[in-house]
Amino acid sequence: xxxxxxxxxxxxxxxxxxxxxxxxxxxxxxxxxxxxxxxxxxxxxxxxxxxxxxxxxxxxxxxxxxxxxxxxxxxxxxxxxxxxxxxxxxxxxxxxxxxxxxxxxxxxxxxxxxxxxxxxxxxxxxxxxxxxxxxxxxxxxxxxxxxxxxxxxxxxxxxxxxxxxxxxxxxxxxxxxxxxxxxxxxxxxxxxxxxxxxxxxxxxxxxxxxxxxxxxxxxxxxxxxxxxxxxxxxxxxxxxxxxxxxxxxxxxxxxxxxxxxxxxxxxxxxxxxxxxxxxxxxxxxxxxxxxxxxxxxxxxxxxxxxxxxxxxxxxxxxxxxxxxxxxxxxxxxxxxxxxxxxxxx
Amino acid sequence: xxxxxxxxxxxxxxxxxxxxxxxxxxxxxxxxxxxxxxxxxxxxxxxxxxxxxxxxxxxxxxxxxxxxxxxxxxxxxxxxxxxxxxxxxxxxxxxxxxxxxxxxxxxxxxxxxxxxxxxxxxxxxxxxxxxxxxxxxxxxxxxxxxxxxxxxxxxxxxxxxxxxxxxxxxxxxxxxxxxxxxxxxxxxxxxxxxxxxxxxxxxxxxxxxxxxxxxxxxxxxxxxxxxxxxxxxxxxxxxxxxxxxxxxxxxxxxxxxxxxxxxxxxxxxxxxxxxxxxxxxxxxxxxxxxxxxxxxxxxxxxxxxxxxxxxxxxxxxxxxxxxxxxxxxxxxxxxxxxxxxxxxx
Lengths: 345, 345
Prior knowledge:
- The structure is a homodimer of 345-residue chains.
- Chain A is of the alpha/beta class and 345 residues long.
- The first copy, chain A, is elongated, with a radius of gyration of 22 Å.
- Helix content of chain A is 31%, strand content 25%.
- The first copy, chain A, contains 11 helices and 14 strands.
- A 6-stranded antiparallel sheet of chain A has the order 6-7-3-4-5-8.
- The longest helix of chain A is centred in the first third of the chain and has 15 residues, at 63-77.
- Chains A and B meet through helix 7, helix 9 and strand 14 of A and helix 7, helix 9 and strand 14 of B.
């Protein structure tokens, strides 16, 4: 077995020279494996919501047709990438073979894992569609997939329901980046603190700042009232609209003794919240944008326009150990786990 | 004199509660000054290129009409913000009054300065249009403007031509951020190293890495050949298209002894160069995006897709002392200064 490109370009059939995600067609013949690949027996696909909705509508909601369409896509492209939406999803499966060159890999055959890279870049072969579960965009299959050396995955733990794990891992980057970023004694403003990533981020921040810090959650509606404090996620909650920067800033500063914040973390998924993140941050502080609705230019020009010498970071969905950090929060905080089980499972 | 909002919301007439940039109308009556404002006698406006082009075309290139249109905009809005393009520009002038509350301000009446915040958020009154200089988008005027407490400016030095200073300050954030970011011994890849910001960034990086580091400039055409090495801006140059990520990565790694880079700085102003920045960066390294063509989501999802645990930073046009850092480079490196004088003045 030869060692191949860690990003998987060796499996790109068309067009040659691009990465697996923009590629039109991947090689899903797994009879020859490279020694830095992981072969997995796949049991289920969690299709990206936008993709599943598109396919389901195109098939008039008919399960047999949905199955055929998914099979056609994978046979055609060697991966489950919806040609209309461009998006993928993730898989769940059992490890079959771990390439000999992957000496640091903590997997062994038989381990149950979820992939944490998109199906839109993952070589996949489907032998049989077993069941379509429309309510949760899930397709049970018999098939195999390959993870590249750069591919991310999480071992599924025994002590949690699979759907709880998947819901949490969906946003695993945010709390794990928070763990690296926030220091004891910091003041931290979390904008959108009652969403899925916002709650995990707030709890992590509150743990990290310790007894000398201050974590303030900004929410648009505090529902149920005092939710963040009751779950131990924040010291204070403010109710403010993040698209109204000046108003949010005034409320946020008041909740921090009039001082600007060391760290601001944006977890809101609506546009035009850049200035609400920049204004409350102190000179030399950090703004971390996890919102996919963030505009690069609005952030860059916005900070300059108000003379803020701050580091603005693009939320990276991956950091080493992010799955463990995130699942650990749910083990540590039973109230948060219960809330997640009720809302997201 | 009262102390007002450091971001200038006290001068917003319409709509109340927003920042000066999105505002429709600012108060440009300077008979009452606040004690954290700086009043400047303005001698020239450097209109943003997109804005000047639009106005000039609307006026059929007629200088008198261009002057009238600019006067109308400023009388209407209290600032020189083109209602079509939304953009502004910068001013040059002489300090009239420094508010008493600005104790850390290094300005005194009579100092000649350039504003480093956009005219689109700067209260301005024009008493008279003196001259339109179409070739350089410049309007000489008699008038006054106010800088807010958060407003940025640079004192114009005596030892450099004004146009050289303005050309360099236009991208002052990039080299000054590089100075803070790059450490001795680092390997640094500068993508787009032969543009204006790329050259300033490369020189700063080469200074900072010292004798144990490696600065590699990626350019699409090395013209004139060996430009970067001849000017002392980089150890090596590679010729690669930043929209072809895999090809650029291979060339970049080869120029760094096969190793990934500690720091990658993107100074290319074309879209789809995120992956070319992410792939050559080592785990734990930093990618700094100065390109305004950067897509937030392409960067965020791209790093996750290839499993890169890196910090990705949104280029901030401002950091403390950025004007000094940048002009200092031109004093230190006469070859670079000569090149800038020939190309940009």
